[in-house]
Design goal:
Elements: H1 5-19, E1 45-55, H2 56-61, E2 72-74, E3 80-93, E4 106-110, E5 115-120, E6 130-135, E7 144-159, E8 166-177, E9 180-188, E10 193-206, E11 216-225, E12 232-235, E13 239-256, E14 261-269, E15 279-285, E16 289-296, E17 302-311, E18 317-319, E19 344-350, H3 357-362, E20 368-377, E21 391-394, E22 398-408, E23 410-422, E24 433-444, E25 449-458, E26 464-468, E27 472-474, E28 496-502, H4 505-509, E29 516-524, E30 532-533, E31 539-550
Antiparallel strand pairs: 1-31, 2-3, 3-22, 4-13, 5-12, 6-11, 7-10, 7-13, 8-9, 8-10, 8-11, 13-21, 14-20, 15-23, 16-19, 16-22, 17-18, 17-20, 23-29, 23-30, 24-28, 24-31, 25-26, 25-27, 25-29
């Protein structure tokens, strides 16, 4: 007779597998001196399964040798956390706040009297300077510019209707280029049209007051009509001026950038928390948090309106629904470089007081988390921009946001169901087993009550043949219910207890047909509603013996 106890052992061992949430047994951990015979019939075969001592830290991270792959981490106090980081979840750059499209050509003219029959040069009137306004067009409506540092040029198409040379001087009263006043003179040939380019490197420009969204800038023209050989000046029409501001490359802008709404890129990610796939039931984490790590060099007050929606593997969804946040922002240029803005860093935290994160993490979001949102510039309640307190932005300004999800394993649970399946069971000699039981002697340092709800025997097609219903297997370790250590295990109250799982005759008989085992275990925290805190050094110690009464005559 060959009785396949190697197949029976996984079946009986599965209770411990469920109890321990997830574990892997190593022969080096076993002490075969700690076995038990606490059954009410006399076994004639005792199979020593072993002795184990498993810390929570080991159980939850045993398969992740690379720390970078671990979603379960320890904090400085030994508390276990689920932690996940996703970089660049939200970002926007300067182009979304302020940009300058191709500028529209502007037609101006300098008024001249008509001289169809000619006038002696000595009789020409005195020509005064003429100031016009040109507009700088931005790609965002509602923007009022106060001051602009940029590189640019102005293309002029100039036409001279007179029969003599005209010198035209062009100046921008409120601008400097390379620190010098902008003043350039071009000589126009008689009866000619010519194109000139005014280059403006390191151009600092002040806009006309009162400031408007037209973003007006003054430009002044002076002309000098030169004498010719005939000393008679003829011509009809005005001095033509067509100009286009082009090749704008702004360096620093100050102004009022309006109440813009910037849509943030949407996306999704998976936290890769493996044990969520095998858990269902009612539980709540006491203090989960989502932290947004922000680096901001956009000197504009803003409100972030972002949301995150979690999806379980069953398709159920819960949204974070966070309160809108108004983070800090840089409100001055750099002390070392007046054409840049020093970035500031800040952490925005969504917690149980300003969001629905408790419900979101209790879902759990085992499938994915989706994020989306927008940013509102100059929101209600922010400082109103003014020339003395402007919005500021440089050509390399940006906001980058990384997200960290931090879930301390500090929770309450009721009817939490853990499921596992063992496949390819082969117990062909079950008819020789008269009685069978597994005896577990435990010293539980976990603050969790564990009950084997059902162990289903199934055939190859997973049709249920039989099942085992059990009561409490391992009592939770008692935790402190008040004081500085509330929720932590009280080590003085950890006790050794023994429990027996006994198979009925029907269950033993059905082992022959069993090819798969499906295990449902219930976990709860029974501490008067006090959330339990899971620490990495909590240990579960157990001795496991499989005991059977075999019909030696069969």
């Amino acid at each position: 007779m060959i009785l396949k106890f190697k197949s029976l052992i996984p079946f009986l061992l599965v209770g411990v597998l469920a109890i321990a949430t997830q574990s892997c047994f190593d022969g080096d951990d076993y002490d075969f001196d700690k076995l038990s015979e606490k059954v009410d019939w006399t076994p004639n075969m005792i199979v020593p399964v072993g002795y184990g001592s498993y810390s929570l830290w080991y159980l939850l991270n045993q398969h992740e040798a690379d720390p970078a792959d671990q979603t379960i981490v320890l904090d400085a106090e030994g508390m276990l956390h689920i932690k996940y980081m996703e970089e660049d979840i939200f970002s926007y750059n300067v182009d979304e706040v302020l940009n300058f499209p191709n500028q529209t050509a502007i037609n101006l003219s300098y008024s001249l009297p008509d001289y169809p029959i000619g006038i002696p040069y000595s009789s020409l009137p005195t020509f005064l300077s003429q100031t016009n306004q040109i507009q700088i067009i931005t790609g965002n409506t509602g923007v009022k510019l106060y001051e602009l540092d940029l590189d640019a040029n102005i293309r002029f198409a100039l036409s001279n209707p007179l029969n003599t040379q005209v010198d035209i001087s062009i100046s921008i009263p409120n601008g400097t280029s390379d620190g010098n006043p902008v003043n350039r003179t071009y000589s126009l040939a008689p009866n000619a049209t010519q194109v000139e380019t005014l280059n403006l490197p390191n151009f600092n420009l002040l806009f006309n007051t009162p400031h408007t969204t037209n973003n007006d800038v003054d430009i002044t023209f002076n002309i000098n009509i030169l004498d010719n050989a005939s000393h008679i000046i003829t011509g009809t029409g005005n001095l033509g001026i067509n100009l286009t501001v082009q090749n704008i490359n702004f360096v620093l802008a100050q102004g009022d950038f309006g109440n813009q709404n910037i849509t943030l890129d949407a996306g999704n990610f998976d936290m890769d928390v493996d044990f969520w796939d095998d858990i269902e039931g009612d539980y709540q984490f006491a203090d989960p948090r989502i932290n947004l790590y922000m680096e901001n060099s956009v000197g504009v007050p803003f409100q972030i309106n972002a949301d995150i929606t979690g999806y379980s593997n069953t398709g159920t969804m819960v949204s974070l629904n966070p309160d809108a946040q108004q983070p800090a922002y840089p409100d001055d240029v750099s002390a070392t470089n007046p054409l840049t803005i020093d970035a500031i860093t800040e952490i925005i935290s969504y917690n149980k007081n300003n969001s629905d994160i408790v419900d979101l993490m209790a879902l759990p979001p085992s499938d994915r988390l989706e994020y989306s949102g927008n940013i509102t510039l100059n929101p209600a309640g922010a400082v109103t921009p003014s020339p003395t307190s402007p919005n500021i932005i440089s050509n390399n300004s940006a906001i980058n946001i990384d997200i960290e999800i931090d879930v301390p394993l500090d929770f309450t649970a009721a009817n939490l169901v853990l499921r596992d399946t063992i496949n390819d069971i082969d117990i062909s000699d079950a008819d020789k087993i008269m009685n069978a039981a597994v005896v577990i002697v435990t010293e539980n340092g976990y603050p969790l009550d564990v009950t084997i709800d059902k162990i289903y025997f199934t055939d190859a097609a997973y049709n249920v043949i039989d099942s085992i219903t059990d009561n409490e297997v391992i009592d939770a370790a008692t935790v402190f219910t008040s004081g500085a250590n509330i929720g932590e295990v009280d080590p003085s109250l950890i006790k050794e207890v023994s429990h027996e799982i006994k198979l009925t005759q029907s269950q033993i008989k059905n082992l022959n047909q069993t090819e798969n085992l499906i295990i449902n275990a219930n976990v709860s925290t029974e501490n008067g509603g006090v959330p339990v805190k899971l620490k990495g050094d909590y240990e579960l110690k157990f001795t496991l013996s499989v005991q059977a009464q075999i019909d030696l005559n069969n």
